[in-house]
Amino acid sequence: MQEVYLDNSATTPMYKEVIEFMSSIQSHVYGNPSSLHRKGLEAEKEVKHARNNIAYALGAVPEEIIFTSGGTESNNIAIKGAAYRYNRKGKHIITTPIEHPSALTSIRQLQSEGYEVSFLNINEDGTLDLTHLENLIRPHTILISINHVNNETGTIQNLSHIGKTIREKNSQAIFHVDGVQALGKLKIDLLESNIDLLSLSAHKLHGPKGVGALWVKKGIDLHPLFQGGDQEKKLRPGTENVAGIAGFGKAVSLYFINMREHTEHISQLKNILYANLKDFLEIKINGPSIEESAPHILNVLFPGIKGEILLHHLEEKGVFVSTGSACHSRRPNPSHVLAALGLEKEETEASLRFSLSSFNTSGEIEYASQAIITCVQDLQELMGRGGKP
Amino acid sequence: MKLLLIRIGEVALKGNNRRTFENALSRNMHRALHNLSVDIKKIYGRFFVYLYDEEHFYTAIERLQKIFGIVSISPVENVPLDPAKIQEKAVEVLLQSISTPFSFKVEARRANKNFPLTSPEINQEIGGYILNQIPASKVDVHNPDLILYIEIREEEAYIFHHFYPGAKGLPVGVSGKALMLLSGGIDSPVAGWMGMKRGLEVEALHFHSFPFTSERSREKVIDIAQSLTDYHPKITLHIAGFTEIQKAIHTTCPQSMGVTIMRRMMFRIADKLAKKRECRALISGESLGQVASQTLESISVISAVTELPIFRPLIGLDKQEIINNAIQIGTYNISIRPYEDCCTVFLPRHPAIRPDLEHTEKIENNLDISTLIENCLNSIETITLQTSY
User: Fold this and answer.
1) Model pTM?
2) Same domain as B323, residue B238
3) Does residue A327 belong to the interface with chain B, where contact is any CB pair within 8 Å?
4) Among B145, B165, B185, residue at a domain's last position
5) Each residue of A212-225: pLDDT tens digit?
């Protein structure tokens, strides 16, 4: 059966080259980078090489890259590390209500510890209200944490505007960007956007799970959350995940060589998918318009359809997609993001997210479109007949 | 070596019944303790477990506590029938288990009338000796911290003071075999467990509605069945594909009758499977009045499709009692995982509360019942689950 994987915002399949590279490293480069002998040096070199590749892709300096276990850890270290380090300057933090749970819960933890948190107003498409941001920034604001690309709706925040606003109002405040969904999909200009911290993850870019990075701008100091050895500037002590880090570096190099082509390819596929669905079905797009959203994310509302049931029908046809919601009657709105965008519970439950990667082909998209149209029509018919009194 | 005294219940059992009971219990105990170093002996209508490795003490107790037919378990000391030795051992047992001052009383039972002292005499003699030997002890006949039991039997005496409660009921297997309908919900595992408690050997039948429900709901049911193997070492689980039937009902029958007809289809299939598997009863987790479809009228219309007795052990329980049982059995935390076993699409907003048999049968004329049942039976996948030890 044909398989079409359209859940790439959850995770992506790995590059074959990355798998082989990691496997060879695990077989041969088994040393501990901290060891003094040759085996240690070999491992250290792989980590260094990966650090260089990732820094190069970001337009950053290798020394500014801290390897972590993934996006969640990067967000934790960035947010809590900055708050604990700079809390003498103030205890005010600004964020949006549509952050990733790892950022939101970190910030809520700080809130329970006495930090003051302001949530930015969100426009209908998920972009934040810049005027509100301007009004919220105060002298004692120490941290602003913003997700560049929302993982559910593909909403893109205008980082250069946000960065500029922050610098104008408070030159000291730390600007943290969650770049997990954006990496490789959008160009991130660290300098122009005045970014101080950037969270990244390997497995959203055909790299391995369990590895990520935090870019920490030179001059920014963070309070470590873990104690241990000297690795990763003591910010993330512990023996390095050498194979994972090397795989991350490899994936980034492989991807960034053709980043522009990938982006064009993915946007094109998204346009085809949208056009196909729109021709046959009555649908609504959640979040920004097709042109304004991230190239790889399409969040579709199928009125009257239970998203979870559609998901399993598509699964039966080999098409794998995502819903932020389980059809669970006892819970309130299952997606904090779609709720913040003003969707009712029923609308959230009728929504599916399609997320693409450079691995997808136009043939797959045609197959998936057909599958979606057939399933939706079948379900509509079933529901329609069920209307019998 | 530790010696465990196993008391068995249902004293009313006589003659052959008693032997069947004891044989089944012995078999079940051997199976539960098979990989521990033990001997099991039956002496005067009770069992003794000789546990050769003391490290397995709590493991053995825990497993024995889940065997139906056991009323209680006591770790005991066995002593030769010599008053001097008995009193020494009594002091030793007390000193081993208590370090703070305590009050006690001795309760002797003399089954062996050849023993030189009567029960009251033993109480006095040994009580006096303990008072003498342990200065921190005092006698309290009304409200003692501890009762020291001394049993004088034909060949030896037993000393004990602690009772681990058993699961009670009858040993699995003595009452014949039944088929339980197992959903992923809280109720049905409890109903099945109660059937097991009355000595039934149980097989389970689950109806799966993929792609209207998730593959995870199937995993959930397997996990529930697995956790019941603590009480019933080997469970045969039949998983039947129910989607075709759900769709057929939904498209041909009035919505309000959907649940009643669905339940009737389930019981028809259960009836056929039960006969094939030589099960002589069905067990269902239905309760009375809990939901609109569980009225007396509804239950009688549903039951009309089979001549097999349908046990509904939850009839006498409140929801909270069912939940408490599920927690105790260990199925509750699996049941509350958020995967529905029956899709909400097929659940009408207003189910018929008082269906009538004639009317129901008339509606069912629209269904090709025999083909639907045959297809469903052919779709059955059978899995055997066993205790993990």
Assistant:
1) 0.85
2) yes
3) yes
4) B165
5) 999 999 999 999 99
Q: Contact A213/A65 with Cβ under 8 angstroms?
A: yes
B250 contacts A382? CB cut-off 8 A: yes
Contacts of B106 (CB under 8 A, 6+ apart): B90, B122, B123, B126, B127, B130, B147, B148, B150
Exactly one of A191, A275, A327, A382 is catalytic; which is it? Answer: A327
Q: Residue A385's pLDDT is what?
A: 52
Are residues B160 and B197 located together in one domain of the fold?
no
B153 and B222 in a single domain? The answer is no
Taking each continuous run of H as one helix and of E as one strand, the counts in chain A are 12, 12
* pLDDT for the residue numbered A192: 95
Q: Is the residue at B376 inside a domain?
A: yes
User: What's the gap in Å between the CA of B288 and the closest CA on chain A?
Assistant: 22
Is A332 near chain B, with CB under 8 Å? no
Per 3-state DSSP, chain A is made up of helix, strand and coil in percentages (nearest 5) of 45, 15, 40
Q: Is B345 on the interface with A (CB under 8 A)?
A: yes
Q: What is the pLDDT of residue B15?
A: 74
- The pair of three-digit structure tokens given for residue A297, joined into one six-digit string: 């994310």
Instruction: Count the neighbouring beta carbons within 10 Å of the beta carbon of residue B146.
Output: 15
Domain-embedded: residue B275: yes
Give the residue from B116, B138, B165 where a domain finishes.
B165
Instruction: Please tell me whether the peptide bond between A237 and the residue prior to it is cis, using omega within 30 degrees of 0.
Output: no
Is residue B171 assigned to a domain?
A: no
Instruction: Tell me which chain B residues have a C-beta less than 8 angstroms from the C-beta of A315.
Output: 211, 215
Q: Is B256 on the interface with A (CB under 8 A)?
A: yes
B260 in the same domain as B195: yes
Query: Is 90 exceeded by the pLDDT of residue A381?
Result: no
**Nearest CB to A326: which of B255, B339, B346?**
B339
Question: What does the H/E/C string look like for B326-339?
Answer: HHHHCCHHHHCCCC
B161, B200: one domain: no
Q: pLDDT tens across B97-122, in order? A: 877 888 999 999 999 999 999 999 99
Could you read off the pLDDT of A26-40 as tens digits, one per residue?
999 999 999 999 999
Domains of chain A: 16-257 (3.40.640.10), 259-385 (3.90.1150.10)
